């Protein structure tokens, strides 16, 4: 692309959009459609086990991918046009994070990528997104639940972004250059997601009796899956020990502090609901998911699977 | 307010001591309209780019960010409620603007502006 695509100087005076095409420098990395990691140092840091790094990147990537798809299901269904666009933006931010993280996993350990039919042009991150079964996904269960009403979306985005932002703030100092770069970019996106959902949380809580009733119901329904976000899986413990990942238990205090602030501003008490148990102690990070994830993937993956050699 | 009402099509009914909701203001059917101004880069003016609906000022700002700056258009946003804007009317176009039409001496057209002076 050419370096300078100037509109005429007279136009620049009148249009807020005139600076848009001046040059490419302001586009963050990761917008290359050929190679999402173009220009980023993908060497594995010394002493880091590549399969362990890949497994960790898959967890963070699957969280973003599944959450992104659920939020994207709001498109054309939000209460008004403006929130429709806001939710779509949030979904797209997370999809961008997912693409980079799945590409990172594939680059670190090619053996995690499902085999595709010969001649398939699908890049590794697409193979990971569209050709794995539900039990191979490592996302937390909060991300995969079937959507409820707008209050449920508000609470879910608030819990998810509060936790993920606390994680990414620490991940910025990862010894892995890719994870550090993804986190540095993601922190700004997640800060907005948290701001957006926190404001709606307070608005709904302080709105009408009905809006407050729905908000509290949504919080009670999602609360059992909040503690799972801070469980330390063996993969996360290993990644943290190697200096490439974050142990979720270490961000709990920061995340709870932020959440308490929002609950306080909304005058909503912390729910007293027990956490949802795993199945034989296994949760989302172990590939143990609820039935809705399978249905979601069936829809999300059907086109790619029907046309594995398709060109898009 | 009289103490009788025919509202609802049931004929005149007494209102004393009955919770009719007649005095309760109807909820606003829609969020208020806001006008959005975006500054493309430092040194330029905020330019009107469009309008949107929002429940309050802060929500209007967030919506404006999502609707009007998602392709990296801006470094600053103003939002203002449309009903807070006082606008000139087309009817007063002549008294407002015609008198300046023939005062050519008010234009600095007799200066040469160097090419490297921006935004003139």
UniProtKB/TrEMBL annotation, chain A:
A GO CC term assigned to this protein in UniProt: cytosol
Any one Pfam family match given in the protein's UniProt record, by short name: PaaA_PaaC
UniProt xrefs under Gene3D superfamilies: 1.20.1260.10
BP terms from Gene Ontology: phenylacetate catabolic process
InterPro entries xref list: Aromatic_CoA_ox/epox, Ferritin-like, Ferritin-like_SF, PaaA_PaaC, PaaC
Database matches in PANTHER family: 1,2-PHENYLACETYL-COA EPOXIDASE, SUBUNIT C (PTHR30458:SF0), PHENYLACETIC ACID DEGRADATION PROTEIN PAA (PTHR30458)
Protein's recorded name: Phenylacetate-CoA oxygenase subunit PaaI
TrEMBL record, chain B:
InterPro entries reported in the protein's UniProt record: PaaB, PaaB_sf
Gene3D superfamilies xref list: Phenylacetic acid degradation B
Disordered: region residues: 1-21
Protein name: 1,2-phenylacetyl-CoA epoxidase subunit B
